[in-house]
UniProtKB/TrEMBL annotation:
It comes from the Eukaryota. This is Tyr recombinase domain-containing protein. The keyword DNA-binding applies. One of its GO terms (biological process) is DNA integration. InterPro entries: DNA_brk_join_enz (IPR011010), Integrase-like_cat_sf (IPR013762), Integrase_recombinase_N (IPR010998). Keywords: DNA recombination, DNA-binding. GO terms for molecular function: DNA binding.
Amino acid sequence: MLIDTPILVYSKERSTDSSLQRHCPSIEQNIESNDMSCIRKQFIDRGISTKTASIMLCSWRKSTKKQYKVFVKKWFSYCRERKISEVQISINIVLDYLTILYENGLGYSSINTARSALSALGLVIDNVLVGAHPLVVRFMKGVYNLRPTKSKNICVWDVSLVLNYLRKLSPVNMLTLQEVTLKLVMLIALTNATRVQTLKFLSVDCMEKLRDEFVFHLDVLLKQSRPGYKNPDVKLRAFPPDRRLCVYTVLKEYIKRTEILRVHTKQLLISYIKPHKAVTCSTISRWIKVVLQKSGIDTRQFSAHSVRSAATSKAKLYNVSLADIMSKAGWTNVNTFATFYNKRIINSNSFDVNVLNN
DNA sequence: TACCAGTCGTTCGCGTAGAG
DNA sequence: CTCTACGCGAACGACTGGTA
C-alpha cells in the first residue's frame, strides 16, 4: 500500500526546517513539490521527529534525490491521471507504471532508477519494498534482456595523441587564458585520473604549494566517500623531463592569471570568459572534450569520463601498482577492478610519471 | 563469490545569459 | 541583435556493498 500523501511540504526556496509549512496537499500538490517531502512524511508518520527525519533525508546525496524526484513526480502523475488512490495501489499498478516507462523508450538504467525511487517512497506490497518484489524483479530482468545497459567502450584512446597536442600549447606564458585553462584541466585529469566532480571541487583554499608540487586536500564528499574513507589528495608534481607537460608550471601560470579574476569564489576552475564565474561539472566536461577533439580523438565515441580509463590503462601498461591506480582513481572494490586488470603487476613506479612518459 | 538493488556522478540536448 | 559559452533537466552508465 502506498504511503499517505504528504502533510509536510517545503516552500519553494526552502533550505532549513524553519521554512516548513504544514498543510494537507493532494496528489496534485505532491507533483508540484520539488523534493522528498513524501519520504519525509513517511518518516514522520512513523513517529520520527522532524529533526530526525531531516537527518535521515540526508542519507541520499543531492544528485540521488534530484534523480528520484523525476520518477516520483511521474508516479504521482500516473496515479492522478488514472484516479488511483493510495489504498488501491497493487503490484499490478506498479508494473503497469514501469511498463509505461518502458514503452516511452526508457532504458534499463532509467527504469531501475524509477524502481529505486518507489522503494525510497516506502511503497510496500506483499510485505516487501516494491523494488525487491519478485514480480518487479522479474519485470526488470525482462527489461534488461530487451534493452541491456551498453558498456561505453571496449578500447580507449591513446594518451600520446593528447600529449602531442598539449605539447603544442607552449610556452604557457604565451597562451590565451582559454588555452591555459584547457591544458591545465586535461593535465590534472590525466595525472590524477579524476572525475570531473573532483576537478570542480579543487579549491585554492585547500591548496598547498610545496617546492615542486601543488597538493589539494579535498574535504568534500566524493562519489566513493563512505564512513572511514579518506579522500586521496590531488597532487600536481613538476615534470622535469618535459616542461611542456609540466602540470605544476601550468597551474602556477593559471593561478597567476586568474588571481584577480577569482572574486566571488574559492573554486580553482573559473570560466575564461567574463564574468569569470566558478564553472560547473558540465563546463569542465565540455573543456575536456574540446581538448580530445583538438587532439584528433572522436568525441562522438569518447566522452570526458574516458580520460579516467585512458590514464589508468596507460598506467597499467607501464606497470604502475594496482594499489596506486585504484587509490588514484578512487576505486575501492578490488574485485571490480581486477575483473578488467587482473594481470600480475611487477613493480610500482609512480602513477603520474608513467602516464606522462611516452 | 557472483549477483543485483540501490546510489551517485556524467552525458546529452536545449534554452538562455550576457558580452561585444 | 548575434553569438557563444554556460547550466539545467532528463536519461544513462559507473560503481558499491549486502546477501544468497
